[in-house]
User: Fold GTPase Der from Galdieria partita.
Amino acid sequence: MKSSLYYYQQLRLIKYIYSSKTSQQSIKYLIPRQRNCLAYFSSWMGPPAEDKDIRHFRRIAKELNKEFIDTNMTIALVGKPNVGKSSMFNRLVGKRLSLVDKTPGMTRDRLISNDAILGNYRFTVMDTAGLEGVHSKEPKLDEVMLTSESVASSSAVEYKEEDVYRYVYTRMEQQSKQAVLEADVIFFMVDVKDGITKVDKEIAQWLLRTKSPEFIILIANKCDTKASEDNISMVYTLGLGEPVQVSVEQMKGFYELYSRLEQLIPNVLRKPLPKGPSDEDYEQQQMEEIVQRLNEEEMARQEQHSIALHSLDENAVDEETTKETKESQSNDNVILQEEDIRVAIVGRPNVGKSTLINRLIDEDRLITGAVQGITRDAIPVEWIHRENRFILTDTAGIRKRSAIQVRMERFSMETSLKTIRKSHVVCVVLDGSQHLTQQDARIIGFAMDAGKPLIVIANKWDLVDPSWAQTQLEKLSTQLHSMLPDLKGSSIFTLSAIDRTDAAVLDTIGNAIQEAFQKWNKNIPTSQLTEWLQTLVSFRPPPAMSSSKKKPKLAYLTQVDTRPPQFVLFGATELPNHYMRFLINGLRNEFDLHGVPIRLRLKGRTDRNS
Assistant:
């Protein structure tokens, strides 16, 4: 295993090269070993991040993203519960996408990321649920019908809660098996602290029957104590060869894992990867030549332009900061392209969010069940609708904070709220067979406060008596608009997620999402806004405020931002709340901004040119 000293020695030379050359010029001076070294630090695999030099090297490494090799392969993380699969997933992705906790069974649905990096290789990684043994028994048909219907129907046959959970864990096992079948390479993880258990042996035997051994990398995690080192000999009994000893928590052993994967990739891709010079003598000679040349250039530059160098260094820092910002923005679009629309599916527990996504994509992708709290992570799923690519994110049910007593549920709820903030459009799923609750209004209010356009879907409509359907819809609309006036004029889509005859409704929902996204990005010319304002003011002028006793003279209205639409009204510093509401409703009706939050600010005449 490479020591930290090795990387520091390499990086000191790299830092010297970068201090003597501009960023683009210095890249071509780096040999493959140094490029890999920067890639190593760019993906959370180096010494502690608190070291200022390491932060500097990671910023430099971001410029080398174009040098990373896209392998187009998929890696599945497999193992029993609580062996560190989700932690490994987060390390490879470089973000905390998967929930991590000491409690076994945190992960249930497959979590997939197309932007995992190990060394200078980019690939797709799948986090899977922990396997508690590999069983050949499939869930019974009545259990399948139970889980599908119970999400949307309270009239289903009553089953014991343990039977439902048994079904859920069977579905988790099926999803993990499906991930293994779809993956090119398997990272089979074991916990050396606990030693090798019967479950580990069952999983290993099943993997050997399913995949070729050359495509299975055995990872012995939690190798950070003396007891772990004593147990490492037990890992060899699994029959999968020499294990890679890592500690995901302490970021140890990733270079060995990188080396093992590098040897495996040509067999997966069926072609050799591009390689640079690897002869150590040649590299050493090249390093010495570079250092000597840079030393001479640096000395000459310091003698002639010492003052100019200082200003250039400051400009270089500014350029590097700007480049870092742009690069971080581009990194966010590795998976999500410009035309992709991120849609958050949110709501109270057990209203049918997962079932709705399964129905939209026409695939049994997410685990559903008759009990609350099955979904824990935020699971992104791709949906292609009329040549538009949507990223639907299933979220955990959001309850009142006072009702949350389990730590895992609190983590899940925070993840759901974070998903809302990162989304483009929010679909709030209601239980159409019940009245609108205060918690439904809170969830919708949170999305509106975050500035997201809304689609309201009333699920479980099959439970509503057809003779009372129209009355129930009007009742829901009245409650919704009275609790949340900003949603006046918005439609409520009614459907039953388990009813496959509602294809037209699903198509309408897709069109509504696209339309809401366009409204959210709408930009209205100032001339149209001012013309509309003058007509509105002539019809209903603003009232005088008690503080000034003079009627304000509204000059003009302009839009200053989108996502959500933001407007500035010139000519008044304050207006009554009811008149502000009148203006916002007028904007929404005139320019078709229903379901989209509107921000309106006031600015006096004296501040017009400020």
